[in-house]
Amino acid sequence: MASEKEPAKGKNSGPLAENRKANFNYAIVETLEAGIQLRGTEVKACRAGKINLSDGYAAFRGDELYLQNVNISEYSHGNRENHAPLRTRKLLLHRKELNKLISLTRSGMSLIPLRVYIKNSHVKVLLGLGKGKKTHDKREDLKKKQATREIERSLRR
Predict the structure, then answer these.
(1) What's the pLDDT tens digit per position in 26-63?
(2) Most Cβ neighbours (<10 Å): which of 7, 26, 96, 138?
(3) What burial class does residue 48 get, using C-beta atoms within 10 Å of its C-beta: 0-12 exposed, 13-18 middle, 19+ buried?
(4) What domains are defined for the chain?
(5) CA dist., res. 18 & res. 126, Å (int)
(6) Beta strand segments in the chain, E
(7) What is the Cα–Cα distance from 3 to 118, expressed in whole angstroms?
(8) Residue 74: exposed, middle, or buried by beta-carbon count in 10 A (0-12, 13-18, 19+)?
(9) Helix, strand, coil % (nearest 5) of the chain?
């Protein structure tokens, strides 16, 4: 039996990577799960946790959605067939979902990768549909967060 602190070993064992700054920089309205088309060494590097989502975004090229600026480092035991770290990767969605996203992204919304995880032995990306926050919105969020921390500290005493 796994303890509380250790991730459960199984088919779905926690996120491989998270974009922690996404909720700070964007007001996330909706989330959407998408598959991602990867090469073999990319999957192995993802499982090793060598993925960085901080500058990543999803954009349309024609009728298809692609993940860009996501850095998946080269696999350490790879050979000359190793992948390029900043390669553009195709996202796998149903046509209905793609049509909906096309209309929403034209209205000024952005698609941001929030989390990468494994689900039933497939690598999945959780995309957040959001609008960029202005500087004053970010300051307000920091003030609210600090106020709630102070309230919690005073209640503990």
Answers:
(1) 888 888 999 998 877 888 888 888 888 888 888 898 88
(2) 26
(3) middle
(4) 15-156 (2.40.280.10)
(5) 9
(6) 15-18, 26-36, 51-52, 57-61, 64-68, 71-72, 89-92, 110-119, 122-132
(7) 21
(8) middle
(9) 30, 35, 35
